[in-house]
Known about the structure:
- About 50% of the residues lie in helices and about 20% in strands.
- It contains three helices and five strands.
- It has helices at about 60-65, 80-140, 145-170, and strands at about 10-15, 20-30, 40-50, 50-55, 180-190.
- It has a five-stranded mixed β-sheet with strand order 1-5-2-3-4, sandwiched between helices.
- A hairpin with a 5-residue loop joins β2 (about 20-30) and β3.
Amino acid sequence: MQRLFNRKEVPVARIDTLQSDESIFLFFGRVPSQGGGTLQDIWIGVRYLEQRWLEYMDIAQVVALTDLRPGRHVNVGHTAVTALESLVEDAVILAGNLFRQEVKEMREALEKQKAAHEAKLDQLTRKHHQRIEKVYATRRGLERVLSAQRDSELKQVDAWKRQFNEWYERNRNIDPNVEPQVRLVAVLCGSP
């Protein structure tokens, strides 16, 4: 849909379930992982009534209020956008503030999850090390061969832990070098 509009242009849809002086600015933001994937997509609705900010909305609330669905009729007649244009800057600031707050909370939650995973992984690694040490403590024979086998198994456990930590860093952490941004994707307004 974004390819249908020029830079700094967004669709304005008249929705008959909204009041004539009601509008919702719909924003979309993507939170990237360090590996380039997406950790989360965030949709934010900034709702106005009589040119005053009313509330934030998530996408489920926007859909429920507007009854957006395939086959609905919108944009019957001319839509004046002057009043909407005067709200764009305010809506962008509000959405940006909420988005940054949600990303901050997500970072904090991911850090707690990471600490919990690291604790479990450390515990599992210790158990594997203890098991390996116990197995080789009871074996007798060619000491050099057994010592080399034991060391190899211990290194393999440590390598698995390192690989998991590297995967976790790439895929479950927000990229610190990229500041996630939201963009305005549509404006929904009531019919006059």
